[in-house]
Design a protein that fits this description.
Blueprint lengths: L11 H29 L13 H33 L7 H26 L13 H23 L8 H20 L2 E3 H4 L9 E3 L3 H16 L1 H17 L4 H12 L2
Antiparallel strand pairs: 1-2
Helix pairs in contact: 1-2, 1-3, 2-3, 2-4, 3-4, 4-5, 5-7, 5-8, 8-9
Bound molecules: protoporphyrin IX containing FE.
The site of protoporphyrin IX containing FE (HEM) has 13 residues, from helix 1 and helix 2.
Length: 259
Amino acid sequence: MQNSAQIEYDYSIAKAFTFATILFGIIGMTVGVILAFQLAFPALSNLAGEYGTFSRLRPLHTNGVAFGFALSGIFATWYYVGQRVLKVSLKESPFLMGVAKLHFALYFITILLAVVTLISGITTSKEYAELEWPLDLLVVVWWVLWGVAMFGMIGIRRERTLYVSVWYYMSSFLAVAMLYLFNNMEVPTYFASGGHGSILHSVSMYAGTNDALVQCGLVTMLLHSYLLHQLLLWFITSFQKNQDKMFIHINFLCLRSGD
Ligand code: HEM
């Protein structure tokens, strides 16, 4: 292994995700500007036939900025920050480098397919869970790949201290996985109906109030993931360093959160 003063970090994946952030940022926000004009001048909704309507472009904007712009930014920071704070280079592990490359390639393909399907009207119509089931499966694959890259890098790290920033990435990985999985539970109607309708079509496994409760519960959990990750962090560091003080830390956290 190289010693930490000589580590040659590999930023190729961080750069690729930064490129995606800029590209999807430009596309997503341009669509946002068009939407804003359509709200002011509704007649603009009819200029490009069905492909230019507010109802097609709005999910394109929200998905474009959330999954295209913001998420690729998060991945870009991970592949930069992760290497630096763990003091390990992706160059040191051809396996993890391969996983990271596959992560980027599948992610990029998914977002392009999302653009094509959403503008074509292929959607579950459920806000923030609009992508149809084949794309959801693709999302699961590259999310798991991100997890393998992240925990793999943590596993071979040179820096013993796990900085709080790494805990944020870990809790984001876990919380978003739960949010995405539960929010996208759906039945592909083609298979359930014995071959009727479109193979791409699906319906949510739960609807109405249950749907609202699931979304509400999961978002609340995400908002609290800061507290959750802090609790985990304090728990483990206390356990490692001084088991006697562990309960004092937990009490302190409970006081701060007002629980
Ligand atoms: C040039 C920049 C942007 C413009 C002009 C813009 C414009 C818009 C417009 C017109 C809507 C539809 C509002 C409606 O349906 O009443 C919208 C919705 C939304 N935009 Fe943007 N947007 C921009 C950037 C962003 C960015 C950077 C993000 C997030 C990273 C974002 C996230 C959202 C979300 C989540 C919604 C749905 C909000 C809701 O349903 O209440 N937008 N945007």
